Amino acid sequence: MKKSYFTIILLTLSLIIFTACSPNSGSKDSSKETNNSNEKTIVIGASPVPHTEILEFAKTKLKDKGINLEIKTFTDYVVPNKALDSGELDANFFQHKPYLDDFNENNGTDLISIGEIHGEPLSAYSKKITNLNDLKEGSTIAIPNDGSNGTRALKLLEKEKLITLKDSNKTIQTEKDIKDNLKNFKIKSIEASQLPRILEDVDIAIINGNYALDAGLDTKSTLFSEDISDINEYVNIIATTSENKNNEALKELVDFLKSDEMKHFIEDKYGNAILPAN
Question: Where does the record locate the signal sequence feature (predicted)?
Fold first, then answer.
């Protein structure tokens, strides 16, 4: 009985030693950990159009560089910054710098821009005319009704010599700031998101690029548009936290988003609705 007892102990010890020395012991988990450590993941929040589409294009290209882009789509303008500040996101892509600065001031956050990617110009669309020379006296021109975009629309109309403003440098402009309107155009202020829907009822509508894309308008056949130089202040950015500003994977992302390949993708896909930043 005693002999059998010792035999069992010896067999057990031999099995433990053999398992510990085996070259395959734990190799599967170690390999997985090593492989994962070589891949850098960026969790980034974005608006659906065009931001998520742009990131999806970048995702396939960055994969070859060992960067995994995990994209989370948001449909509002508050949650992405809160998620970034809390650490749920590594970066986000949906806003311009003035909006980010305002958010920081009102929320006590310290989010920063690490790259200017594209601008979303206002453009003139019409279902009634194809040339400005066809614009008759008393024609109706619809513009966005918010202060920022309404001002941009009026300045664009002035640039096209359709009206003149009393003071072109004034920060916020309304119809009351029009000095000359020689053809008595009727300027109609409409909520920006509704402008594509009322195209049949007006002669011209000045529409934001994202709303034009959402409505399926032909963004390559606009009557006139803002240039990227007109909207440098409003170009959309990649934002992150100040602690994360030197993240190498984020630098790789920004470099690709500003590359010639990405610029060609944006120009081919979005026409005048989206313009690559300088």
Answer: 1-22
